[in-house]
Protein: Pectate lyase-like protein
Amino acid sequence: MTTLKNHRLHFAIILLALFAFKFSTKDPWQSKLLSIQEDGSLVYHPDEKGNTIPDFSLVGYHHSDKEIPSVKVVKTISPNGTDDQKIIQDAIDEVSALNPDASGLRGAILLKKGTWKIPESIFIKTGGIVLRGEGDTESGTKILATGKGQRSLFKISGSGKPLPIESSRTKLFEDFVPTGSFSVKVENASAFRPGDQIILYYPGSQNWITDLKMDQIVERQGTRQWKPEEYNLGFQREITGIKGNEVFFDNPVVMEINPKYTQASLFKYKFEGRIREVGIENMYFESEFQDDKDEDHGWIAIDYNAIENGWIRNITARHFGYAAVSLGDQAKNITVMDAVCLDPKSIVTGGRRYSFNNNGQLNLFMRMKTTYGRHDFVTGAKVLGPNVFLDGLASHSQSDIGPHHRWSAGTLYDNIITDGDIDIQDRGNWGSGHGWSGVTQILWNCQAKKAAVQSPWVSGFNYAIGLQGQKYEGRFSGRNDGIWEGLNKPGLNPASLYKAQLAFRKKK
Structure:
């Protein structure tokens, strides 16, 4: 069996080789879409419709404006090998009853070194709780999913969903809103105030689906054509300012707003069941399994949903069938960093080995490593950005990285390295009718064996900037090519779009 130490050595060798390649050039170049000045300031260059590359720097824990805290330990526990699940769950329940401080934090639970045997699942349903181990190696805090049962080992979730405040709903009052915008004009802004939580809402329409040709997917068994009512898109934002009937918000538009296809609106919402300020740190997760194709064992190591402003850092997961980390569609402003997913155990086919899976909004994954995954850094259906995957390394990849199906909007893949493929394309009747995988999907300074980057028929573009690898056609010919620059040309400046955007924003 390959040891964790050998995996880390393998990753280090690949990273050193890539670093040497990227910085071997004496001729740095810049994208036509964005210029970086000597002082680090950025200048965005719009296309003929006014679209620009969005600012991706406001994702993650508190928009990446606040450091992840070092939370005080209020409870220390040790495993005994017989009732470890109860020990952890009882500690969580005890700390859940404490009053939170002004930051919403109740305290950290320290799980001492040793093997913790968990036959079912651990639940966190209250905000302000941190679970901290004493190391993410087998000799540290080892959380072992024992026995059978396809399950999430740690399940962190509030309850409910966003509920619109209908009295605040107002229509947009514009002919067109380009990608990259931080504001929209509305018919009536009187109900809004800075700090309000809002949804920028794009209802689905038949003519949009028809122009995308997603009601014309070639049929096979199980294929579902896209339906308008299944594509009502709600982008969660916070108001930062109001000027007349123009409303400004904290994160950019990541998909063109065209009245030809949708009558967009803006409204306040409430989400009373969503929890906040939960962290998982410094642990090693492993699942027992019977053989390499076993499907009846630990499936997801850490599963977040109905949560905002949380984090996962310094974790390693091994032998899980689906993911090290999976963020649900109501996980928002989560930072996942310094995380490793190794050697999943399952058959190698659909719905498995999604090493770092994101279905939520405004989330940041950074410094991830994987082996033998299928879709290592991936989004699902109707995933609404911005979202960022930064500095990821996938080894022995069994399939492709990228938006997986049914329209992800606004994802940055920044310095992602894989020995497999990265694809942004029309997936047609794969699955039950995956179709167009997304729009405003940006590959920035990535490396892959090969890549297909196509732009959808309407609603925006996809981009491959500074890609190292083979460009190929993808599943279908006759699709619009994405916007490509600097194929196999080292020296892209800035080397990281996210880091440059974050540095520029913090200087302003």
